[in-house]
Each structure stands twice: as C-alpha cells, then as structure tokens.
C-alpha cells in the first residue's frame, strides 16, 4: 500500500465489518484522486458470458487493466462500489476480491439492483483511487 498517501482504519465504536472492507480510508493532502466509470463483466471483445462468476473474473480483469494503463495498482484503490443483479456467490467473489486487493481492504459498498445499463450486465464495479 502507498502508506504516504492512503491509510485504512477499522474503528472499535462501529459494528464489526461484515465483509472484506475497511470502515475508513484516509487520503493525505496533495494526493492525486482518481474516479473511474463502472467496470463490467464483458470480455476484451465486448462479449458477456452467461455465467455470473465469469463476469466477476472479467470485471476484475478489466479493473486491473484500467489501473495498469495509468500506472496504478490495487493498493491505490480507496473505494469500491459493487452493484449486482444476481445473488453474489460470496465464496467465489471473496476469493477473487482477496486475491486482487489483499489486506487491508479498501472501503466498500454493495447493492443488489433490478437492472444495470444493459440486460447482459450482471455485475458492475466502480472504483476510486488515490496516489
């Protein structure tokens, strides 16, 4: 983690985290702040697999490629927003998430929604980063 820009805190006076996230992520002054459009489960050719977990894999590949393209790493990510139209297979998702981010985790929000931008999209993940 880029310790001179980003720090993560779990606080004792709020409920214990119920997932892989940190309650508070602090960004130091003079850091560059990045916001990204949500990434989806399409492959590099724009095709959407039917299987949800394959969309999970593709989404994280797309996030990885996005970060690399501007010389950022998963440690630079400070916030993750997850929207899903289907029940998330948390055993699978948490393994992919943990392999990608490791501990300490960025702050996170999860929401189940009725639909996303296209009918084929089952998962969308938006990230924010600082460096």
Molecular structure report:
This protein is of the alpha+beta class. It has one domain: 60s Ribosomal Protein L30, Chain: A, CATH 3.30.1330. It contains two helices and seven strands; from the N terminus they run E-E-E-E-H-E-H-E-E. Strands 3, 4, 5, 6 and 7 form a five-stranded mixed sheet that branches. The chain has a two-stranded antiparallel ribbon with strand order 1-2. Helix 1 runs parallel beside helix 2.
Distance between the termini: 10 Å
Number of domains: 1
From the alpha carbons, calculate the radius of gyration and give it in angstroms: 15 Å
Order of helices and strands: EEEEHEHEE
CATH architecture field: 2-Layer Sandwich
Kindly provide the name of the CATH class.
Alpha Beta
Tell me the fraction of residues in β-strands, as a range: 25-35%
Low-confidence stretches: none
State the total count of DSSP E strands. 7
Task: Estimate the mean pLDDT confidence.
Answer: 90
For this structure, the quaternary state is: single chain
Secondary structure class reads alpha+beta
Individual helix count: 2
Assign an overall shape: globular
Write the layout of secondary structure elements.
Blueprint: E1 6-9, E2 24-27, E3 33-35, E4 39-40, H1 52-69, E5 77-84, H2 90-101, E6 107-112, E7 123-130
Parallel strand pairs: 5-6
Antiparallel strand pairs: 1-2, 3-7, 4-7, 5-7
Helix pairs in contact: 1-2
């Amino acid at each position: 983690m880029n310790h001179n820009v980003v720090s993560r805190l779990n606080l004792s006076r709020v409920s214990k985290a119920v997932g892989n996230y940190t309650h508070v992520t602090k960004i130091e002054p003079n850091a560059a702040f990045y916001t990204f459009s949500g990434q989806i489960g399409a492959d590099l050719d724009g095709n959407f697999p039917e299987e949800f977990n394959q969309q999970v894999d593709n989404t994280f590949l797309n996030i990885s490629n996005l970060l690399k393209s501007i010389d950022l790493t998963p440690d630079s990510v400070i916030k993750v927003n997850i929207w899903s139209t289907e029940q998330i297979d948390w055993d699978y998702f948490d393994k992919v998430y943990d392999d990608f981010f490791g501990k300490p985790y960025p702050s996170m929000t999860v929401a189940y929604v009725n639909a996303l931008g296209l009918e084929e999209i089952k998962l969308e993940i938006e990230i924010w980063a600082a460096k």
